[in-house]
Amino acid sequence: MTTITAVYENGVLRPTAPLDLPENSRVQIQVREILSEEISAARRRLHSILVASGLSLPARKPTGSSRLLTLEQRERLARKAAVGRSLSDLIIEERAGR
Question: Can you give the pLDDT at residue 88?
Answer without folding.
Answer: 78
